[in-house]
Amino acid sequence: MRARVYWAALVGALLILALVTASPILYTLLFALLAVPLVGYGASIFSARRLAGEVKRLTPFLQVGDTLQEEITLKNLHWFPKLLLEAEHQTTPFGTNGKVMTLWPYSSSSWISTKHCERRGLYRFGKLRVTSRDPLGLFNRTLEFGDEQVALIFPATVDLPGFFVPAGHGWTEGLVRGRTFTPSPIAATVRDYVSGDSVAQVHWPSTAHRGKLMVKEFEREPSGPADAVWVLIDLDDRVQGGQGAESSVEYSVTIAGSVAKRFLDAGRTVGLVVNGEEQTIVRPGTGLEQMGRVLQTLALAEPGRLGTILDAANMTAAELTRGASVVIVSSASPSEVASAGRVLEAYGAGVVPIIVEAASFDGAPPARGGSYRLPGTAFDAYVVHAGDEIEQRLDYRVHGHGNVVNVALAQGGGR
User: Fold this and answer.
1) Tens digits of per-residue pLDDT, 88-122?
2) Which residues pair with 71 in a beta bridge?
3) Which residues contact 148 (CB under 8 A, 6 or more apart)?
4) If you compute the radius of gyration of the chain from its CA atoms, what whole number of angstroms results?
5) What predicted TM-score, i.e. pTM, was given to this entire model?
6) Beta pairing, strands 121-133 & 82-92
7) pLDDT for 256-312, tens place per residue?
8) DSSP sequence for 329-386
């Protein structure tokens, strides 16, 4: 727009001078200047013809803390050179990044765009905006290539090898030990056939070797619903502190995802309850698919005022079977967390509270140590402050946990 103003001012000045002086040179310059827009307009049209562009995401799995890489390609499919094209890739939440380039006839240009994933949630990408201009900048044409695509940036997780939860049968992780005749993926041993055994459970190689019928005994499957681990994350925004990555909300989400991953990796059944902008329940499950469901739910979770930690505890209690464990992740006051824990304990659950101290994210000095017993309860709480290393803060072997469990059992993995 500014170039057009300058051009119009120059044409006006030449016109006045030419009329006043009647100089042939000034008239020649005036007519040449009037022809410039026609040439520029034609150049802008040809520069925008037969272009193709695409955006390809090179990083398949996106998680907070990772580096996102994309390949952006622009092609000239025409004989006319494309001079000084402005290519912009529009994304959310990373904004716009661009490049100025010249494409000679039937050539292409590709470059790698790199971004650091700092925030979980939806990532929108794929639209490429290309602007062509004439050499003087009087005219421009804008084209868009590609369709908007959506991906999820999952929350960060950390390894928690020293984190344990109590259940109806004591502190544990991984497999529930014991033999069963019910088929499962884990065959433990063989024994003599007795009347009533299913023929389907006959172990034919051992039968052939020993000359008598032998049947398989199975290890119990890891963590049935009766000893599921539930993760209750409280994102009530009335009790949160800090902003962005250094906030109690983001620490809570990282802790919840890490706890779920810790027990899913150990073969446990894990469920999730989110209390925030919405109250969401992910039913207990196992394996990678359940990990995906948990991380997806946490990636989209936002703080809100739909209910308190006590409301969320009552909702969770309705889902429990006796012998289950519940890990509470909350920034509510110790008395509120204690009340929620008592509700869950009344339903037979083993409770481990993790308090993310909101005041420390607003600049206040830490008010509590690494762990302490909640008032009026028999269970202890871990405490996480701003700047803490979560994997160390949630390590039983570093901070201990009251007198509930002896250290030898914890270090032995509860087996």
Assistant:
1) 988 888 888 888 888 999 999 999 989 888 899 99
2) 56, 112
3) 124, 125, 126, 127
4) 33
5) 0.72
6) antiparallel
7) 999 999 999 999 999 999 999 999 999 999 999 999 999 999 999 999 998 999 999
8) EE-S-HHHHHHHHHHHHHTT-EEEEEEE-GGGGGTPPP-S-SEEEPTTSSSEEEEE-T
